């Protein structure tokens, strides 16, 4: 199998709710599907995503990809590329002009698994086909009423673990959100909080203590302080012995390695770059550090989650992306199930390609209604 063609399809549409945290917000989706096509006809799918600013026109995405990325892909075997180790130096150590990195890894692994006719999680070495999911609201910008309905809905459909956003300048607001959550979910719920680096190290310890004293048990606190404050994270890890520190989301593979070497996290947070996640996941397993899978586009991270030995939780945030593929990842009763189809199991939906393609950049005011989201529609309609 050799890579012979590529295809890019640009999408831009409204979200069905405002998402964000103490630092950022977004109410639209800006992505492009990357399809790598092999000489056998097999297609590997990944998604180019930018959270906060629109991608350029499709023609420009194609131009940049053809110039910057395609020379290293054309005619190459995907099964070899997924394992290739590089050591760029000087000016060659840089990101792509557009966010191709994750999309490339996902599409290449999709092809590699299809070549051997295996689901991706089995190619990665899985011993299971499901992982427990926790309900994540990305909820900082929701009203209290919207927040309550969202998590009540998640509880009603089987989730037992819930992660909320904190980090408001008004700490009473954070405490109130925890109070609301406790009122709308099951009594034995597991609760996580994520401040997205809103706090300093000592401030975080003071606030975590206040949260505990207010009667709230936390499974973990995610990214409480700056990602590279390894000394502060280690202090929190040692001092806050009633909860766990989950960090690493914002770090690349090298940064995650340094985080673990500093003994500065209880749980390592990883995302959707399959090669990077597996490599750093192997290192985490060697050090006995649990791994959690944060948000991955269309939950493609389920494959790595099933393959790595230290993963208990996968984040699910009910985003309105399911219309883009024929069969989304199944999530039922609070569990995410890895597809048993060859590759990662996600195929770009042809209706979505026709009806939702936006080859040219549109202003936000022209995006129209958000695509229907069946997984959370009842909660959002009530708003």
Report on the architecture of this protein.
The protein has 383 residues and is of the alpha/beta class. The protein folds into two domains: 138 residues, Enolase-like, N-terminal domain (Enolase-like, domain 1, 2-Layer Sandwich); 216 residues, TIM Barrel (Alpha-Beta Barrel), CATH 3.20.20. It is 33% helix and 22% strand. The chain is built from 13 helices and 13 strands. An eight-stranded parallel barrel has the order 4-5-6-7-8-9-10-11, surrounded by five helices. It has a three-stranded antiparallel β-sheet with strand order 1-2-3. Strand 1 and strand 2 form a beta hairpin. Helix 7 packs parallel to helix 8. The relative contact order is 0.16.
